[in-house]
Amino acid sequence: xxxxxxxxxxxxxxxxxxxxxxxxxxxxxxxxxxxxxxxxxxxxxxxxxxxxxxxxxxxxxxxxxxxxxxxxxxxxxxxxxxxxxxxxxxxxxxxxxxxxxxxxxxxxxxxxxxxxxxxxxxxxxxxxxxxxxxxxxxxxxxxxxxxxxxxxxxxxxxxxxxxxxxxxxxxxxxxxxxxxxxxxxxxxxxxxxxxxxxxxxxxxxxxxxxxxxxxxxxxxxxxxxxxxxxxxxxxxxxxxxxxxxxxxxxxxxxxxxxxxxxxxxxxxxxxxxxxxxxxxxxxxxxxxxxxxxxxxxxxx
Length: 300
Hints:
Layout: H1 3-15, H2 18-24, H3 29-43, E1 48-49, E2 56-57, H4 59-85, E3 91-97, H5 99-116, E4 120-126, H6 132-137, E5 143-147, E6 155-162, E7 165-169, H7 174-178, E8 184-185, E9 194-198, H8 203-214, E10 220-225, H9 228-238, E11 241-245, H10 249-256, E12 260-264, E13 272-278, H11 285-299
Parallel strand pairs: 3-4, 3-5, 8-12, 9-10
Antiparallel strand pairs: 1-2, 5-13, 6-13, 7-11, 7-12
Helix pairs in contact: 1-2, 1-4, 2-3, 5-11
């Protein structure tokens, strides 16, 4: 089995059937089928259950595909190392990031980064569902900006900053009348306030629900939206409250000017912010430089 055959097997699995894969590879379906069958004859086992839709792996196929991915990882890492040794400056970097963080961070780091690495292609993968780590694990992204307490053993985490949670609200809320501006409080203090929130399923909504659980409160959510920024601004204008990630420095500075705000005290778990990548992946210099630039921005 050669590298080309390995890649064909992964493409068939990715596309769900041999016919669609053959079209994407600009070859005939019989030819692609013959190539897959040649591997199966060589290994004396079947790789795919062809009667399922989409096509699925046999038990042996799962083991074969896992091994193929490891082999191709070794190949890819070797090529990246050789490119770096030879002074190559070309490459592709896929970054998974939540939209609200992307709006705050990327306009700062990318102009400097692209000036330093003009031949590197940067792909931004925005995700609101809190599956950024999975994108890296599944090789859909090279790097991901994540806030997590439960680290995955397959990933390496580079610490960026404490992700403190800020509560913003209108100046006429009960909380604003009782609590000094900028205080650090228990979220219990806001249990009777009306909240504005992002919709269920969003990454920051999961953070919020975790906080409600940790502080043993079940407040009323009066409005929901797709945007953390809009949720915060609606809370301020309507005299409700909303939670907001403290790592968004520029945005929080603007919002603080016309609102009540306070910080939520940290409980059992630390709310830290990281940049993560796969442990078994070779990280070329152009990615290492991006990581350093992100660290500098958050240190500032």
